[in-house]
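Posting this for the archive.
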Amino acid sequence: MTDRERILRTWRGEPVDHICWQPRLEHWFRYRQKTGTLPERYAGMDLLEAYDDLGCSVRYAGRPLVYEYDNCALRVEGDDRGRVTSYETPLGTLTEVIHFGEEGTSAHISKFPIESLDDIEVMEYFLSDQRVRFSTEQFEEIEERLGDRGVCQFYFARTSLMRLIVNYVGFEQTIYLLHDEPERMERFLAHIDRCDDGLFEVLCASPVQILNFGDNIDAWLTPPPLFERYMLPIYEKRCEQLHAAGKFTHIHMDGALKPLLPLLSRLPQHGIEAPTPLPQGDVELEELCDAMAGKLMLDGIPCVHFLPNFPVSDLESCVERLLELQAPRLILGISDEISPPGDIERVRLVSEMIEATVR
């Protein structure tokens, strides 16, 4: 059975010969490649060859969506130190500034595009002018490149509140604005969601079978009152559309989870990606698996278990417990992904453990 077959059969709830293992090596590989610290074994390999050598599957390999504008433009300029993105509209231009880490593979936003209430109208105009289309050419190229290693799946624009927090405004200012200017912010959130209608029409009509709500949920950013008010209704509406079109869905929840555990069973998505138990997250593995309520778990191994200073036996124990508690509703992976100082041979160890379970 190929990884592609395992992935699709797992989502459909059909038997597989063993659990699919998708550790997400991209950040580790690119950092090591950029800094000249790839282990000798991988020095001449590309990323997909490294996946093959380690015996694991690929989850993400591209997003075949193209954004177009009639009266606006999105301009991106940058160098090794950072990137400036300009949202150009007839009403004015908004600017986002991102600075890269020294190695060029990490980044942080130093200036959000929305800094005042007046900026909201400009962003609303930009979003109203934006169109999205699905690129069949890019999709076919991704599928060909993946082969049997995986299935073309991807995450798309964050839902409205998380887009404010992560992309447009920043967490602190978003909270202040929700408190101080509730009516204006409610209108803005509703506008973002309306502008996403075209995106979801495109996703529903596409041949992609698995889609990820890449909202990077953390209970300290969206505690239960905010989550229930702003997140759940959108998830319910959008998943109803996607599921009616035959799509499988999952949501990226890689932050603190304990306050949100009682709400996991209410999520309409079929699966949850990157939930992180102790010692890295804030929940016991057992209580996390109980709260999943039959949903598919993607990942589940805290990435700290791949650091050289953590005992290998802890990693082995974690894998064994995940297989016991969550299989077959499991696509095993690292929550969220292996970090640059991680020991890549521990990825091979997990591959060998999974292979040993073949029945």
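The first strand starts at residue 65 and ends at 69. The radius of gyration is 21 Å.
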